[in-house]
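Continuing the series of single-chain predictions for the mutant panel. This is the parent chain; the variants come on the following pages.
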Amino acid sequence: MIDSLMPVIVATIALFAGALVGYYVRQSIARKRAGTIESELQKKITQTKKTVEEMLAKSKEKIEETEKKSYSDLEERQKVVLKAENRLFKKEEEIEEKEKTVNEKEKEISEKLEKLKEIKKDLDVMKEEESKKLEKISGLSKSQAKEELMTKIEKEYEAETLERIRKLEERGYDNYERKAREIISHAVQGYALSQTQEITTSSIAIPSDEIKGRIIGKEGRNIRAFEKATGVELIVDETPGLVIISSFNPVRREIAKIALDRLLKDGRIQPARIEQEIERADQEITKKIKEAGEAAVYETGVLDLPDKLVQILGRLQYRTSYGQNVLDHSIEVAHLSAAIAAEIGLNVSLCRKAGLLHDIGKALDYKVEGSHTDIGGKILEKFNIDKAVISAVKSHHEEYPYESLEARIVQAADQISGARPGARKDTLEHYLKRLEDLEDIAMSFSGTEKAYAIQGGRELRVFVHPKDVTETEAHKLAREIAQKIQQELRYPGEIKVLLIRESRIIEYAK
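Parent structure:
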C-alpha cells in the first residue's frame, strides 16, 4: 500500500517543490521589474521637473517683459492725457476770457439800447408835438397832409416816372424780342414743312349733267342708298358739271368722295354697286388713316403711343383748320416745340409729344360735345398719357392755366405754325369781326377820336386830340389799350398799338 502510494507522494512533493521554486522565481523576476520601472519613473520625474523649471523660467521672463512694456505704454498714455488736460485747461481759460468779453459787450449793448429807447421816446414825443403844431397851422389832419403831399409828388414826377418805365420797357422788349427771334429763327430754320396747307374739297366734277339723273336713280333710290351708306348729304342741284358732298365728318366725306368718283368712272350706279364701292373706300381710308398716323409718329420720333391713339391721330389727315391740314400742322408744331425746348434747355421729348398731340381733339370734335382742347384731354387721359403732356394740350389755347414752361412753348409753336404767311386762310366774316373788335376796344377809351385796324389786324392806329390827352397820358393810354386787347381778344402773333397825338398850329398871313 505504501509502495503504491509512494509515486503519488513523490509526485505531490515534486509538484509542491516545483510550485515553491516557481513562486520564488516569479518573486525574483517581479522584484527586478519593479526596480526597473521605479528607476524609469524616477528618471521621468526628474526630466519633467527640469522641463517645468525651464518653462517657469521662460514664463517669468515673458511676464517681466510684458510688465516692462505695459509700464512703458502706460507712461506714454499718461503723457498724452496730461497734454490733453493741459490743452483743455487752456481752452477753458480762453472760453472764460471770451465769455467775460461777451458779457461786457452785452452789457454795453444793453446800455446803448436803453439809451436809444429813451432817445426814440423823446423823438416820438417831439414828433407828435410837431405834428399837432403843423395841423393847427395848416388846418389839415395828418392823413390829409400825407395824401396832399403824395398827390403833389406824383404829379411832379409822373412824367419822369412814365418816361423811365417806357425806356425800361423798350429796353427789355428789345432784349426779349431779339432773344425770342433768335430762338424762333433757329427752330424754324431747323424744320421746313414741305406743304403748308392742303385744300380739301367736297365737290365732284361730272362729265355731263345727264350723269346727275343716274346718280339720283329711279325714284331717288341711288342717292338714298348712297347717303344711307356714307352718312353724308349728296347735293345734286342745278349747278352745271358739279355734285356737292356735305358732311361734318371729314372721314365720311372723303369716303363718299372716293366711292362716288369710282362709281362715275365705272358707270354702273346702282344700290348694290354703291355698297361695294363704299365698303372698298372705307377700307382704303382706314388703311390711309393708319398709315398717316404711323408716318406722323415716325417723322416726329414719338414712338411710344398706343396703336389706337395713332389711329385717331391719323384721322387729322382729313381735318383742316382755316385751310391748313391739321396733321401737317401738328407735325410742324411738334418739331418747332422740340427745337425751341432744345434752345432754352427744357424737356424736348415732352414738348415734341405735346406738340404732336395738341390738336388730337379735332379728330373727334364733330361727334363729341366740347372744345377740341377738352376732347383732346379726355382722349389722352383714356390712354394714360403723361399728365404734363395732357396739361400742355389743354392749355395751348389758354382755356386752362399753364402748369409748366413746356406748355407755353407748345402754345407759342402752335401760334407760329398758324400765323406764318400762307399757313391758314381766314374767312371774310371772321376777319372783319376781328378788325371791328380791335377798333371798338380803342374807341372805348375816353380821349380817342379815331381808330383804324390795318395790316390785316396786325397794327392798330389810335388818334387822340392833344387837348384831351397829355403827352404823359398818351403813353399810359397806349399801354392800357394793349393790355385790354391782350385780355379780351384771342389772336396769333402780336398786335402793334400805335397811338398818334398830333398838334397842328395854323396861322394865316394876310
